[in-house]
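Q: My labmate handed me this sequence with no annotations at all. I'd like to see what the chain might look like in three dimensions before we decide whether it's worth expressing. Could you predict it?
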Amino acid sequence: MGDRTVVADVADELARRVASGQYMPGGLMPSVRQVAEEFDLNRATAQLILGRLESYGFVDAHRGKGFVIRDVRAEGGVDVYRRLFRLSMPDAETAVDMFGNIVEEERGIALEALLSYTGSERAIDPAELKADIDELETLARSADPDQYRMLSIELGLLRRLLTALGMSVQRAVLNSIGEMVLEVPEAVQAFFAVSPDLHVLVWRALVAVWESEGGPSEAQLALFEDLFGMYHQKVMARFEESMGVDVDADLTQHAATA
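A: Here is what I predict for the chain of 258 residues:
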């Protein structure tokens, strides 16, 4: 167990150096011997660590040359982005920028799912959705709501809608976004920038619409889109605040340059 922890911790430290630019793309990672010496490890463990970095997508192994550092920001896929986001937390500016991209993508997928499902023939038994929303409400009313569990439930509800709509690519992206957010406590907290009760009210209102015969009017849908946008602005503001970014100063700067 101890060795596995050392391997993960040291691999994350080396990955952090790549993410921060301390180790540049195209260059060589420290050798097995250098890693073993720096972190006081045996060579077998150092080899495992470099192998893990390769599995992360941060380096490519070249026989006779060593491990060459990849341009992870330009070439990395979703799994690399997820790891970069977690490793970026010590750098507030980078973390806020990456979280902004995550929130924008999540907002687009969630809004499309909710509006598409509202405008389609409903394929899910409302009782199934209500069971999850009931759990959401129980959590929201507790003295110390479990935000991680609440967000997991909401992601699960969206996953069901995307499955019913046949939107498999969006579902895959949402799943990856969920993994990125759920492993960063500051990101989870940001999604509760408004009262946990409001999350419950929104889902209850949506189910009521889906159970109704008529459905929402164009004006109601437009209002929902506006409220959804405002909610995600608050999510971003909360994350910036948690990262120590001066939100008021940031807004003032934007206003001055607008």
